[in-house]
From TrEMBL, chains A, B:
Gene3D superfamilies noted in UniProt: 1.20.970.50, 2.40.40.20, Nucleoside phosphorylase/phosphoribosyltransferase catalytic domain (3.40.1030.10), Pyrimidine nucleoside phosphorylase-like, C-terminal domain (3.90.1170.30)
Molecular function GO labels: 1,4-alpha-oligoglucan phosphorylase activity; pentosyltransferase activity
The entry's keywords: Glycosyltransferase, Transferase
Top-level EC class: transferase
All copies of domain Pyrimidine nucleoside phosphorylase C-terminal, residue ranges: 420-487
Pfam families per the UniProt record, alphabetical: Glycos_trans_3N, Glycos_transf_3, PYNP_C
Protein name: AMP phosphorylase
Organism, as annotated: Nitrosopumilus ureiphilus
Record-level GO cellular component terms: cytosol
Known EC number: 2.4.2.57
Length: 513, 513
């Protein structure tokens, strides 16, 4: 059917969608959420929306996304056909009905996701099926590979590329800001991509952004790594594993993450990682609640890595309270810088960074990794390296702790009794920091005076909330009126234990959690 | 946050959606597919799309749907807040994780679906979960009730209201066009709503539409029933169980139907049915393949009916070939009229109609239902009743068989060998009829000369394809070049058997198929 292009000038969040008059839709035999093929030079599959007023019979309303791909002129005529039933949808239905998917089938699905050939309903059904039915190691491997194959890749000419990842869930975790320079200073190559906060008070990209630009393109990233051995850039604009970005959106909206491991691995594979250490913060306040659960996850990660050619170790770390003494992008970046400059001692952050960096050293064949990491940090080489990276990414390499702009509206939260800090509630801490403006207001957040195990006297300041804007401070105070963010307990070491390769291969490998 | 209204003039298929500039979204802390509450006189929850060009910072782009509900003036200012996390989403997540839902929880979900409070992803995840996890009888009951409660209802002042439904899947099934007038002629009240074809060659509404208008409102429908005891109207515009219409769209796109029974029952309950006969066409070519499967389904229907206060029987009918000798809206309506007028004998259609109508008579306490139905049909009272209904619905009550406009482009499909018809492929027959233009071109379809068990000589015409437009006939011929629609076998009676109330209540009631 020939239709006249009408650019509606609307955006549809990356998906190529069109609006079709109900009469034309009827004639073509397509319904809402159905698929059409537009043939105009190249051919594009688009998802159909039905209109009865906006788009008149004989017209095809297109979104900015379609315009961007096909570059169609207003009032030009295109040929439109009903799209053949995508094979990928049949495969999604198979998974929905409990069948295991082959590598080829998964590749077809991932392709359909990236090309916009599958609609939102179908992607949500796929993600839901993976959550309920679980996914096998084979399927997880195929998903990782397919997500890499359908995106851009960073190609560095190096036989050994290392990386680190944290499962997340613990606030204040600025470990990456220490680990990357330690590793890069040792001569190993670490092309670190990281994310911005979605539900947390700061992502690594948010923290790093207070030191330097992080919105680099893939070629710029390559250049920085070439010159400094490392980088800390935002992964969101690099188009590495774009399918993953789409899956993550769906997972986020449903609060499930069946694709957690393929997601991590695809991003690491896309930057060419050969060695990877995954940090699994563990504890009541973290994403992974128990050591048993963390051990299972660690084994899955190690097995999946093996299949993808990434040698992995996992470190299970103490995740029952924030890492270090700060939450919020600027406060955290400043704290990391102070530890690198040795102007401040933050034992748990120091310990965690040296364990993670040390594990990276050990999986690449070095001995006494923790000591090696600690020595690089204490020697000042890590600080020097971070400043090199800042400079190469376009930041002020001479940045000093007092350069960070911190919110001037403050509120001190004091103890009403005495004792020892027994517990801290990570979720409430994040809620307070977000209410105060983090991560958007980079200078908002929390500084802790007391943490788990610390002795506390009556009326001691437990922590101080910082906000750039005073109404936001009031919102944070309001939360503190209603909720209890801290209790009393015993101090602990950071590292619970470390998982190396799993000696026994389990028979029924199910990643489903 | 105060935002300026910008009506984008686009339709979003019934769902209230808005477009928000990425900066404002960030400020509000909402992401794509998230929920906002617009407060302007009344408050409305809307689903968020993110724009960066279309909608500038400080503006709120709204769809026609939002405009229709809130009646906002261009450039007026509204207060917009992030919507609280809907409880219904928590309940969907519970189902996703295998928990059984309570009546209250299901009601909350159904409400969320109808109010537009749940986005497409979430509805797809719910439907997928129901498909994989199954639903209990309690859940099915709650779903049916909630779907009724969130829609309009037909209120007739009668202690006994009967209805019929077919599970479908067999082409050429014009049984309803005979059953409604037989029942109405007997004095029973049968307010029949029916659907249009989605994937089939004709729905009952498509067939009936060649006799009379079927797009009646609920008050008009009531009037027709009041005057004639029956009606045959399209259910799509009545707003009975609107949640069901939304679920069905999602199910259709995923080719699953976990809500099949709640869907049927909600529509019946909404018209106030007290007695219901459900036809389950059974056989290799039908939706339900085996008698065992049909029996299980029948028991579920009967149990669910019991809980909802609808007394149900099921009839399992032969579904391995089309019903009667025609497929296509006009051809089928003409055939039904001819049987009512006794100008044509169609034994399987006659048999099926009398069994279904007879079962309705028997569940309302009459004896020898089949004979009663047959007598009404043969007496001419059913024909007279249909003409009354046609007249009341605004059609030409004097319509004669030769008044139907049938496509003049025809193609005869002939036998290449001799024997007996062993089988007919329902799916291929539908594909041919649809290629020829049905259901859109009402005069397109198929007339059969031979059916299962019939003796066939070489070169006999097996069936003739009719198309209103000649290119469509060519498409149908093309399918016949590639596919084999018929084989050879033994004639059978229509009724396999009839299921009355299940004597034993099964312990683990799972509707999941």
């Amino acid at each position: 059917m020939d239709l006249i292009i009408k650019n509606l000038g609307i955006e549809s969040g990356g998906k190529p969608i069109v609006f079709l008059n109900v009469l034309d839709a009827d004639e073509l035999g397509v319904s809402a959420s159905g698929r059409l093929q537009i043939n105009s030079g190249r051919s594009l599959t688009v998802i159909v929306n039905i209109a009865s007023v906006t788009v008149q019979k004989g017209y095809l309303g297109i979104s900015e996304e379609v315009q961007k791909i096909l570059k169609l002129e207003q009032d030009s005529v295109v040929d439109v056909q009903i799209s053949p039933f995508p094979k990928s949808l049949q495969f999604i239905r198979n998974k929905l009905n409990g069948k295991k998917l082959t590598d080829k089938e998964i590749h077809e699905i991932v392709n359909g996701v990236v090309n916009g050939n599958l609609n939102e309903n179908e992607i949500a059904a796929f993600v839901t099926s993976l959550h309920i039915q679980g996914l096998s190691l084979d399927e997880a491997t195929s998903l990782s590979s397919s997500m890499v194959m359908t995106g851009k890749q960073l190609v560095l000419n190096s036989p050994q590329i290392v990386d680190k990842h944290s499962i997340g869930g613990v606030p204040g975790d600025k470990t990456t800001l220490l680990v990357v320079p330690i590793i890069a200073a040792s001569g190993l190559i670490i092309p670190k991509t990281s994310s911005r906060a979605i539900t947390s008070a700061a992502g690594t990209a948010d923290r790093a952004e207070t030191l330097m630009p992080v919105d680099l393109g893939i070629e710029e990233m390559k250049e920085v790594v070439h010159k400094t051995n490392g980088c800390i850039v935002w992964g969101g604009a690099l188009d590495l594993a774009p399918a993953d970005d789409i899956f993550v959106k769906t997972e986020y909206s449903l609060c499930i993450d069946p694709l957690l491991l393929p997601s991590i691995m695809s991003k690491k594979k896309a930057v060419g990682a050969t060695h990877l250490v995954v940090d699994i913060p563990t504890g009541r306040g973290a994403k992974v609640k128990t050591i048993g659960e963390a051990d299972l996850l660690a084994k899955d990660i190690i097995e999946l890595g093996k299949r993808l050619g990434i040698y992995c170790h996992c470190v299970l770390t103490y995740g029952e309270q924030p890492i270090g003494n700060t939450i919020g992008p600027s406060l955290e970046a400043r704290e990391a810088l102070e530890v690198l400059m040795k102007t401040s001692q933050v034992p748990d952050l120091f310990d965690k960074a040296c364990h993670v960096a040390g594990s990276i050293f050990e999986i690449t064949g070095k001995k006494n990794g923790f000591e090696l990491a600690r020595d690089i940090l204490l020697s000042g080489k890590a600080e020097k390296k971070l400043r090199e990276i800042i400079s190469q990414q376009g930041g002020q390499s001479e940045i000093k702790p007092f350069d960070f702009v911190i919110g001037t509206n403050t509120f001190e939260y004091r103890s009403v009794n005495e004792g020892q800090v027994l517990w801290m509630d990570n979720n409430i801490m994040v809620e307070i920091a977000r209410a105060a403006g983090a991560p958007k207001n980079k200078g908002s957040g929390i500084i802790f005076n007391k943490k788990n195990g610390d002795k506390v006297s009556k009326n001691d300041v437990l922590f101080t909330v910082y906000a750039e804007k005073s109404p936001k401070l009031s919102r944070a105070e309001q939360i503190l009126d209603e909720k209890m963010p801290m209790g009393i307990g015993d101090k602990m070491e950071m590292l619970i234990h470390r998982v190396k390769e799993s000696p026994v291969v389990r028979r029924s490998f199910i990643l489903d959690r």
